[in-house]
């Protein structure tokens, strides 16, 4: 194994290169040591996946994608982007499968986007309010909007987000701006709560 890399991009590249070279144990160890397991689990949970399902999806990702498909990455320099894009696709597939299995009858559906709560109970903290409004945002908005907000919160650059969502740089910047405005409309109600 080599010396620890500084950036997440370099770390992801190193992991993918080890998988490509057949050094699976070293690659798995670095995946854990560099915090990718924790990062990907946290990301899946923020996307609304339960811990057990997130762990299963992550294991499937490691085996079916990192181990078996890492050789298909054209430019190893973008390994982290490839990892996230592939993992997000697996999360979306899981979400579609769940949605297909639990369709809600039209007469029982609720328009969550119309439900903005005014918080008069001051025992509720601003953090609780933000968490609740963020969940409402994720339920009401498109998966792509939720995904972009999650990527922004994770610290991804515009270029990395562009590669993940498959838009031009300008279109990605515009879409990120729209996503920020949209989530702000959900979070504005939390400004009324005093810390």
Short description:
This protein is an all-alpha fold and 195 residues long. It contains nine helices and no strands.
Written overview of the protein:
With 195 residues, this protein is mainly α. It folds into 2 domains: 8-101, Rna Polymerase Sigma Factor, Chain: A (Orthogonal Bundle), CATH 1.10.1740; 106-192, Orthogonal Bundle (Arc Repressor Mutant, subunit A), CATH 1.10.10. Helices cover 66% and strands 0% of the residues. The protein has helices at residues 8-20, 24-33, 36-46, 51-69, 79-101, 126-140, 143-153, 158-165, 169-187. Helix 5 (79-101) packs across helix 8 (158-165). The longest helix is centred in the middle third of the chain and has 23 residues, at 79-101. The chain is globular, with a radius of gyration of 19 Å.
How does the SSE layout of this entry go?
Elements: H1 8-20, H2 24-33, H3 36-46, H4 51-69, H5 79-101, H6 126-140, H7 143-153, H8 158-165, H9 169-187
């Amino acid at each position: 194994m080599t010396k620890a890399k500084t950036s997440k991009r370099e770390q992801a590249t190193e992991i993918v290169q080890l998988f490509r070279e057949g050094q699976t144990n070293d690659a798995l160890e670095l995946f854990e040591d560099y915090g990718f397991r924790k990062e990907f689990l946290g990301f899946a949970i923020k996307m609304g996946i339960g811990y057990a399902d997130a762990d299963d999806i992550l294991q499937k990702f490691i085996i079916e994608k990192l181990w078996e498909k890492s050789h298909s990455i054209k430019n190893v320099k973008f390994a982290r982007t490839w990892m996230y894009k592939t993992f997000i696709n697996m999360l979306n597939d899981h979400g579609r499968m769940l949605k297909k299995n639990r369709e809600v009858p039209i007469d029982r559906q609720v328009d969550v986007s119309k439900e903005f709560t005014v918080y008069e109970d001051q025992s509720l903290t601003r953090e609780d309010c933000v968490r609740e409004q963020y969940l409402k945002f994720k339920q009401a908005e498109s998966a792509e909007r939720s995904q972009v907000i999650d990527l922004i919160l994770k610290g991804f650059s515009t270029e990395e987000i562009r590669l993940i969502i498959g838009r031009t740089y300008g279109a990605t910047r515009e879409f990120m701006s729209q996503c920020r405005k949209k989530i702000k409309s959900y979070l504005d109600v939390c400004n009324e709560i005093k810390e």
